[in-house]
Design a protein that fits this description.
275 residues
């Protein structure tokens, strides 16, 4: 997964120096994932069922039913904690203990992935409390460890999806919400799935979370001196989505990197009362 990303991460560090440390840490995690080779079966969904699901607005899978290789993901997660134990003194003991427990009890990883895929935040917070980690950190590490499986699933299922016919604000592959959006070089808006990374076109003046199309309750703001970065919001559901205008940049950057390099926009949005 790291192939081709090193140069882009280096470029992002220069463009967004405030995100240098976070991007460097993510680069290290991607390096660990390079050795992960998940075993994912070819999809065997009947074409008529696929057609029916898309017509009725149902994703191909639910998050919980994705054919993820949890064994390879849990190994990656354990490697993450081993790596992090030598990087953060404050949590070194916790990281070492978690890595040991993950190796001894495979049920621990299964419980974590079950909570993450079901987006059961109460269960995730309880696990994070038991492990002595912030729930946001644990969620991020779990999702990142799933990326090799999700990447293979996305590529295997791509031929089954008719992206031009998908009009929903959630992912056509796994049903997850988008956590980023971007305008392509022609000004068309695309949403980026929070979980599997699938991207699909979506109307510019429409909230992906509540389908609000009232221009008086939709809007955006942009940080000073950062061309091409915006936060689009909806006053009806009080949600927001960070958006990259790729027309402002010479080179395109993977949305996972853009997400990490724009965490300051999340702070701005939350200060404005959006969630």
């Amino acid at each position: 997964m790291i192939e081709g990303l090193k140069d882009q991460i280096s470029r992002m560090m220069l463009q967004r120096p405030h995100s240098r440390e976070l991007l460097a840490s993510y680069e290290a995690l991607l390096g660990i994932l390079q050795g992960v080779k998940p075993s994912i079966p070819d999809p065997t969904i009947d074409s008529k069922i696929v057609e029916m699901k898309q017509k009725e607005g149902f994703p191909l899978f639910s998050r919980e039913d994705l054919p993820i290789d949890l064994d390879s993901a849990s190994k990656a997660l354990r490697w993450f904690f081993l790596h992090l134990s030598g990087k953060q003194d404050r949590l070194e003991k916790a990281f070492n203990e978690i890595s040991r427990r993950l190796q001894e009890d495979e049920n621990l990883a299964e419980q974590l992935y079950s909570a993450v895929l079901a987006r059961d935040m109460a269960a995730l917070q309880e696990i994070a409390k038991q492990w002595g980690l912030p729930s946001s950190m644990l969620y991020f590490l779990a999702i990142t460890s799933l990326k090799p499986s999700l990447s293979v699933i996305r590529e295997k299922c791509r031929p089954l999806l008719s992206m031009e016919d998908w009009e929903q604000g959630y992912c056509p592959l796994c049903g997850s919400e988008p956590y980023m959006a971007y305008f392509d070089k022609k000004g068309k808006r695309h949403l980026h799935c929070e979980l599997c990374g699938t991207e699909w076109a979506y109307p510019r003046v429409k909230c992906p979370f509540c389908q609000n199309e009232d221009q008086d309750t939709l809007g955006y703001f942009e940080p000073e001196e950062e061309e091409g970065l915006r936060v689009y919001f909806c006053k009806r559901c009080v949600r927001y989505i960070k958006t990259i205008d790729r027309r402002a940049f010479e080179k395109e950057t993977p949305m996972d990197l853009e997400y990490l390099a724009t965490l300051h926009l999340d702070i701005l949005a939350e200060e404005e009362g959006f969630k």
